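Appendix B: complex inputs.
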Amino acid sequence: MTLGSTTIRGNLRPKMTKDEAAWVKQELAEQIDRYKKIVQDMEALAPQREKWVAEFLHRIQTRGFHVHAAIRRVIPKNEVRPRDGRPIQVVF
Amino acid sequence: MPRPHIEPFVDRDVGFKKMTLPGFKNGIQYKMLSIDKDSGACTMTVQYESGFKQPPGFSYTEMELFVMDGHLMIGGKKYVKGTYIFAPSGTHLPAMSTDEGALCLAFYNFGPPTFEESDADHDKADKSQSLKMLNSYEGLDWQVPTLFPQTAPGCLLKILHLDPKTFGMTFLYCMTPGFWQDNISYHDVAEEAYHIWGTSWMMQFGDLPTGGYFYRPAYINHGCFKSDLGILAIGRTDGDLHNYFHHDPFSTPEENHHRAAAKLARMKPALYKWILTNEHNHLPHDFEYPDDAYNTDGYDSGIHMHEDGTSHSHKSSGAHSHITAPAKKKKK
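Resulting structure:
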């Protein structure tokens, strides 16, 4: 199942050939390497992200939070959920 | 959803590779953007080299193609940048060639890339959908999203394809210069996108420039957003896109999943109660599509990458897996 639908359809030859299976295996290995690089890059961005988050929390309490289209609402401080030491994980 | 979370990835940082799969003609290079471990379904940037020629033929899996630069001659007609092609599985395309080359995005939706030379459709070709070839730049107008809640002003859409059963869609979207949206979003469905031109910014991932790509499973936070000079991008979802907006930068996918379920209970209490109390252990019967089977594997909120390329869930998300892979009902 992949993008396109949760419905099981759209492939007239669901069993891969030997060549296709080998190609997919190679691509998956490279995808794992790309993923690891992304995780590293995103970890390196963590200090800057903390600043962006602080700026976001300030803006929604002053300029407003986009509720729908152009409708904005200023979020009162008591509606901002305390962080309580929670990390920011961005890649899963 | 065996594709992992790939975000952000910029294809301009890597080189093209020669397509070596049997069936394909010489003159195709590609960059893999994301691939499904189980099925081999994938999204790729594809460069058709100048002088490329291909006879008529079909893909065994449903396929979409978007021309970003250059042109393709298909059946003697010129298809320029902005062309979108949707080919149901087994539906043949006429002979294809290009003099100047063409830079495209290719989406093989349910299996690895295949090409079978043929001047006719496969005898089991998917006839529930039709071959579509359109010029999205000149043939479609930008529209304001009709979602509720809606994205901030300055984000516009062109719908290229809508799956009639799931409302999964392929679409162009743009952000106008100076676009900004101060909320955090997530969805019940997977989403992928590729930046054809321009740079946008998200609080989690930073800048995504031209050539930037993401494949994002359900319930993962993204936003707030902005773009100084605007962007043009192509996006896809694999189901009905609902924007869950909130302002907690630290919430987890599991918490987001719980929040989505709470919203369902609030907004559709009869449906929520019915799911809990009646057809609990198997997928409900749909009289409109009685023979359909579904695969909801991976539609949980703890998705993450493993060494073997698989992703799976932990904690509370498993509580929702009881509708996974129901047995298909046999025809009487």
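Residues 140-246 of chain B form a domain with the Jelly Rolls fold (CATH 2.60.120.10).
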